[in-house]
Model the fold of this input.
Amino acid sequence: MQQFSANIFSNSKISNCFYEMVFSWKPNTIPLPGQFVTIRAEPNTSPLLRRPFALSGFYESKKRCSIIYQKRGPVTTLLAGKSPDEQIDIIGPLGNPFPIPGKKNKAILIAGGTGIGPVVFLCSRLKNLNLEYISIFGAKTKSSIPDNQFIKQNFVICTDDGSAGYKGTTTDYLKSISNLMTSDTILFACGPQPMLKSCNDFACSHKLPCYVSVEQIMACGVGACMGCAIKITKEPGFARACKEGPVFKSTEIDWN
Amino acid sequence: MNLTVNIGNGIFHNPVCVASGTFGYGSEYESLIDLNKLGAIFTKAVTLEPRTGNEIPRIIETPSGILNSIGLANVGVKRFVQEKISFLEKLPCATVVNVAGSTENEYIEVIKNLENCKSIWGYEINVSCPNVKHGGLAFGTNPFQIENLTKLLRQATPKPLIIKLTPNVTDITTIAKAAQDGGADAVSCINTLIGMVIDTQKKVTVLPMKTGGLSGPAIRPVGVALTYKVSRAVSIPVIGIGGIMDADDAIQYLLAGASAIQVGTGNFVDPSMAVNVLEGIKKYSERENINSINEFHSFIQ
Ligand SMILES: Cc1cc2nc3c(=O)[nH]c(=O)nc-3n(C[C@H](O)[C@H](O)[C@H](O)COP(=O)(O)OP(=O)(O)OC[C@H]3O[C@@H](n4cnc5c(N)ncnc54)[C@H](O)[C@@H]3O)c2cc1C
Ligand SMILES: Cc1cc2nc3c(=O)[nH]c(=O)nc-3n(C[C@H](O)[C@H](O)[C@H](O)COP(=O)(O)O)c2cc1C
Ligand code: FES
Done:
C-alpha cells in the first residue's frame, strides 16, 4: 500500500448514475480484482473521511487504474466534478483480492449497483487468462446501465423493470440458469447486502463455493480503527472489512 | 530548536504524537509514513480481556467530524504482549500503551502484565469507560475516583503515567488536579465528546449504542479551550488532543499551554498528517524565533 497523488486521465458519466474515472497508478504493487483504494477528493474538513472505491481495471502498460462510482453524496459529487489533469489523493492497493479460479472451474460473476467495478476487473482478468465465466449485472432500469463496451459485450444484463436484458434480479437470473451449475462452479459477487445474501443462499443450496466483496463504512481503510467491522460466524464474531476483507467466503459471514 | 518534551522520568524526541485508537498498534501505518519521525505512538486501548467491540455501524461522519462507537475492540493484554510489542520495540519513538478497564483491578492487572516489557515508555489511562463498580458512570467524571485510581496505578509502575481526561464533565480542572494529586506525570486533553445522530427517515439513532464519541476538526476549539484551562490548573505537562489537521492547529494547542500534541482522526484523513505537523512546527518556531516547547507557553496569559 502506498499514498500517492494521482493524475486524472479521464472522468466521464457512463450512465444516469455511474461515472468512470481513469487515473495514474504510482505504486510498484500491481493491484488485483477485489482490491480497493481510498480517495480524498479535496483537502477539506467537510466531507472529512477518505472514501473506499474498488478498482475496476488496471492497464499495466500505461500504469493506469480505473474506478466506476455512483454519485450519491458529498465525496462522489466532488469526484464527479473533477476534470482530466486534476490530482486526487489515493491510498492503495488495499484489502484482499478475489481468488482466481482454476482451469477446470466455471466462474459465475454477479454484480449489482456499485459492485460493478470490481466484477468488471475480475471478469477482464478471467477473460485474459482464457478462463470460463458467466457475468451478470443487475440494474434498476435501462438508463442505469453503464455505456461501457466491455460490460455490454461480456455481461448478461438484468433490469428490475425489464427495460433491457432479462427482466428480474440477478438472483432470479441465477436461479434460471441453475441447470448450468456443476461441482466446479464458483460464484463471485459484489453488490448490495440483500443481493450478496441471496447469492450465499443460492450457493449454499447448490453446495457451491461463493466469494463476496462487502461494502462497509470505513474510517482508516488500513486496519487501524476497527470501524469497518462486519459480523462473521467464526470467533471473535467480527472481522475488518478493510483488512480481512473486503472479499470473504460467503459462508464466513453472519447474514443475520 | 529543542523539540524534546519531558514527562515524568521519560522523554519524547518531539511533541508530535498519534492518538490512541486512530493508529492501531503502529504497524498498520508502517508502509505509509516514517514512524521514526513521531514523538510517540499511543496504542489502541488495551484491556485485560480481549474485546470484540460494539454492534455495527461503528462510524458515521458528521460536519467536520466523526462519531465513533468502536467499543474498545482490542486483542487483550496477553495477545498484545505476544503479538504487538515486537513491532513497536524496534521503533525509536516512544510507545505509550493506552490502558482501559471497568474496575480498578483491571487497570492494575493490565499494567502488571506490561511492566516487564522494557520497550514500553509509559501508560496513558483511558478513564472514559464505564466504571462497573460505581454504577457504570465513567471513572473520568469523579475527582475522588480519579485520584484513588491514579494513586493505585502510581504504586504499580515507576514509568510515566498519563491520565486522559474526558471533556464530558462540568469542570475538567478538578479532574486534572485530582490526577496530579494522585501522582500522574501528565494529563492528555481531550478524549471524544459524547454525540448522537438520528436518522429521521427511520426514526432511529444511527449508532446502535445510540451515542458515540465525537472527534475531528469539529471539536478542536473545545480541545484548545480545555487545554488552556487545564494547563493553568496543574503544573504537570498537558498533552493537547482534538481535531488537529495541520501544523497551525497543533501550534494553537502549544500556545494554549500544551507540551505535546496528538493527531487522531487526522491520521484517517491523511496518514502523513503527523509528519507534516512536525515539519510545520519546526518552520514556525524558526520563523518566530522560538527555541523550546516551553517558550510557546509564554505568549498567552
Ligand atoms: C471496499 C469498498 C469498495 C467500494 N467500491 C465502490 C465502487 O467501486 N463504486 C462506488 O460507487 N462505491 C463503492 N463503495 C462505496 C463508496 O465508498 C461510497 O459510495 C462512498 O463512500 C460514498 O461517499 P459520498 O461522500 O459520496 O456519500 P455518503 O454521503 O458518504 O454516502 C451516501 C450513501 O452511501 C452509503 N455509504 C457510504 N459509504 C459506504 C460504504 N463504504 N459502503 C456502503 N455504503 C456506503 C451511505 O450510508 C449513504 O447512504 C465501496 C465501499 C467499500 C467499503
Ligand atoms: C475511531 C476512534 C477510536 C478511539 N479509540 C480510543 C481508545 O481506544 N482509547 C482512548 O483513550 N481514546 C480513543 N479515541 C480518542 C482519541 O484518542 C482522541 O482523544 C479523540 O479522537 C480526539 O482527537 P481527534 O479529534 O484528533 O481525533 C478514539 C478516537 C477515534 C476516532
Ligand atoms: S476502516 Fe479502519 S479498521 Fe477498517
The pocket of FE2/S2 (inorganic) cluster (ligand 3) is lined by residues A 218-221, 223-228, 240, 242-243 (CB under 6 Å). The interface with chain B takes residues 1-3, 40, 43, 45-50, 89, 91, 216-231, 236-238 of chain A (CB under 8 Å).
